Amino acid sequence: MRGPSRPAGRHRNGANPGVVLGVASILILVLVLFFPEGILGAGPPHGTMTSLCANANLKSDPASVVAGSSGEVRFACAFTPSFVPAFTVGGLPPGHFVKAQATLTVFVAPYASLWIYDARDNTPGPCANRGGHLQIPSGKTLKILTGDWNYCAEFLNVGQAGLPTFSVSWTVS
Question: How is residue 35 annotated by DSSP?
Answer without folding.
Answer: -
